Amino acid sequence: MSGTPAGRVESVSRVVAYIGRLVAQNKTLAGLLVRGEVSGWARSAAGHVYFDLKEDTDILKCVVWSSNADALPPFKDGDEVIAGGDFGTYAQRSTYQLYVTSLEHTGLGKLYVQFEALKERFRAEGLFEAKRKRPMPAFPLRVALVSARAKGAEDFLTTLARRAPQIVVEFVETRMQGEGAEYEIAAAIGAASRMDVDAIVVARGGGSYEDLFPFNLEPVVRAIVESARPVLSAIGHTGDVHLCDLVADRACETPSNAAHYFGAIRDSFVQLLANLAARLDRAVRALATGRAQSYDAASESLRRVAQRHADGRRQRVLLLERRLDAQTPLMRVARRADRLNRAASRLQAAAQYALAPAARRLAMAWRDLEQARGRALADAGQRLALAAARLAGSDPSAPLERGYAIVAVAGRALRSAADVVPGEKIEARLRRGTLAARVERVTLDE
């Protein structure tokens, strides 16, 4: 027998269209106004506005088309409003919604009132003051990530691995939304505060106003203030502001921006090393040039002294020759000639005696110059090699250059074949690109 149930059969499109007509033509809903608190306000690129009207745990989806958006008064998350329009369905998601054409403010929503009251109390305590906050580490090497294993944490870890691979991340997993989430987040921050880390990152991706509200509540705020480690807050979308952002030692708009912040620190230190290397090179060159110039000056000074000494001796010889020529007796001439020869010998010995110390000093100066230049270059080379080795040893992508791959499941790196089961999807990151695969067999080493 056939498995087809008895009864009338219609296509999905006809059923969806029928339900849409029931909602659109319902006389009870016609002209109905709805009071509620605005949540999840967002504007699309086309200018349409999407938001929820909320009361306790009940939600009504609402849409304002771009043609009507400018005619409505400005409103935001937390506002309490009365909205009117036409009820209809969104077939692609099997949802019903209110297409808003009129909107009137009635006051502030409960969550917004609670937010403002807490904000004012914390401000009065001085928790937002810059002087209370702790400085972020100059060059962090270990950070604790307080987050759920979701898109926000994945964005942070992926970006951090690319921009600041030297940082080791200690993941402190916790629930980030729902009733009582603020206590679990506060406990996770406390646990991270007791770790041997340089800083704590509290990260979560975007969500509705209600989903992100735990980050406005007192347990989370107090945990950040009392943390023994500086805290960086990265919660929600660009433009969102929460009380945890105001008390954190530093706040970034998104988890990815937080990773870029640490990447900028690494870039500044790399640039600093490059600048120091350039300065050292210039100093060594200047030292070598200065010593060479000193050598040239000493050599020229020695040459002038020797020349003056030789000129003086030559003048004396000429004077002796003139006196000898003035003597006419042959014996006196012979004696004068003998004295002249002895004087010339003394002159030569004196010149050699005067030049020898200067030549030795010149040789010692040149030797000192060569030794100083060699030591300066060797020290500079060792510091540069040590800095390069430290940076290279911290780069997790270095093994990929040698043909290895990093295998991960759901963004988590695998260390053992026992962590996966046959049929499970895995990713293998190579030096260039990523491979997606499925496990066919698991074999454990003996």
CATH topology of the largest domain: Rossmann fold
The CATH architecture of the largest domain: 3-Layer(aba) Sandwich
Order of helices and strands: HEEEHEEHEHEHEHEHEHHHEEEE
- The top-level CATH class of the largest domain is Alpha Beta
Account of the protein in words:
47% of the residues lie in helices and 21% in strands. It is an alpha/beta fold and 446 residues long. It has 4 domains: 12-108, Nucleic acid-binding proteins (OB fold (Dihydrolipoamide Acetyltransferase, E2P)); 114-253, Rossmann fold; 267-393; 400-438, no CATH class. Strands 1-2-3-5-4 form a 5-stranded mixed beta barrel. Helix 7 links the parallel strand 9 and strand 10 (250-252). Helix 5 (181-193) packs parallel to helix 6 (218-226). The longest helix has 71 residues, at 255-325. The mean pLDDT is 85.
